[in-house]
Amino acid sequence: LHANETLSRLEQTPKLVIAALNGHTVGGGLEIAMACDIRIAKKEGGKIGLPEVNLGVLPGTGGTQRLLRVIGRSRAMELMVTGRTFSFEEALEFGLIHDIYDRDTFWDDVLGYARQFCPPNKAARAVGRIKRAVVSGAEIPFQEALALERELQQLLFTSEDAKEGIAAYVGKRQPEFKGK
């Protein structure tokens, strides 16, 4: 329960969680990465997969459920029952990771990517509420998810950042968000 609870917290936090895959990402490591919102891998940084079947067990920290939700049922099933590990390039093709960054500038590029989601570049509250709408909405019926989206939107409309974003749009300038 403990590890599952930790991974659920990663999914539920209003902060965007980016996994930087800087080496082999197999088994539990991939299960943690799948609980994150965005996964970026280092070029030639290693293999990825859920090989637990080779130990006579299954990916038991949410791995079976997260993999199928990320890449689809039949591909997820095949990868888990064969237990094969595969390249980051193949993972990118499957939609399991979002990008592959160059080895030499990996950390700087990951940090640069992450900065775009923070003030003054983005309204942090809007990013958090988008995450909440997507994560929670995926678990409930469509009409309830639309109601959640409307509720989150109304909360955002009262924020300083929404006022700034709209003013910047009208004034044809870049917004300067403050995270408020």
Walk me through what this model shows:
- The chain has 180 residues and is mainly α.
- It is 53% helix and 11% strand.
- The chain has 9 helices and 6 strands; from the N terminus they run αββαββααβαβαααα.
- It has helices spanning 2-12, 28-35, 63-71, 73-82, 88-94, 106-115, 124-137, 142-157, 160-170; strands spanning 18-21, 25-26, 38-42, 47-49, 86-87, 99-101.
- The strands form 2 sheets. A 3-stranded parallel β-sheet has the order 1-3-6, sandwiched between helices. A 3-stranded mixed β-sheet has the order 2-4-5.
- Helix 7 packs antiparallel against helix 8 (142-157).
- The model has no long low-confidence stretch (mean pLDDT 96).
What attributes characterize this protein structure?
180 residues; mainly alpha; three-stranded parallel β-sheet; three-stranded mixed β-sheet; 53% helix; 11% strand; globular
Major sheet, described briefly? 3 strands, parallel
Percent in strands: 5-15%
In percent, how helical is the residue content? 40-55%
Q: Radius of gyration, Cα only, in angstroms?
A: 19 Å
